Amino acid sequence: MSGRSHLCFLLSPGHWWTFIYITNPMSWLSAQSYCRAHYTDLASVSNMAENQKLDQLVPTAAKVWIGLFRDSWKWTDGSNSLFRYWAAIEPNNDKGNEVCVAANMEEYGKMEDWGCEWKKEFVCYTENKFKKKRKR
Ligand SMILES: [Ca+2]
């Protein structure tokens, strides 16, 4: 299908994680709704290894919504990861109105706060605890 691509990786033994890159630009809230309806949520990026997966998946010129937003910075999926990878001068809360976070792939996924109403491509995730496949 056009409009999306994805990348699966093993988070820990038996624990798969998939990032799904959605190329239809949406506001952060619409992107969150879309991810929750079709996958688990907007992507949480919890460490440099996951940031590198994001970097592998999303083309360099893109800025993509991820699951981080300001409420003293929280991940929308409830993850308590303290990983932050801010770009220089970010978060700057420009015009006092920047509550949602995009990863700037031109800067290897560094994070920038943005007004949530901007329409951007985004990355969802889904989580699969590995089930042993039985051969039939
Ligand atoms: Ca900013």
Write structural notes for this entry.
With 136 residues, the protein is of the alpha+beta class. It has helices spanning 28-38, 48-57; strands spanning 4-12, 15-26, 41-42, 63-69, 74-75, 100-104, 110-114, 120-129. It has one domain (16-129): Mannose-Binding Protein A, subunit A (Mannose-Binding Protein A, Chain A, Roll). Strands 1, 2, 3, 4, 5, 6, 7 and 8 form an 8-stranded mixed beta sheet that branches. A hairpin with a 4-residue loop joins strand 4 (63-69) and strand 5 (74-75). The longest helix is centred in the N-terminal third of the chain and has 11 residues, at 28-38. It is globular and about 45 Å long. The chain starts with a strand and ends in a 7-residue tail after the last strand. Bound molecules: calcium ion. InterPro entries: C-type_lectin-like, C-type_lectin-like/link_sf, CTDL_fold. Pfam families: Lectin_C. This is C-type lectin domain-containing protein. It comes from Amphilophus citrinellus.
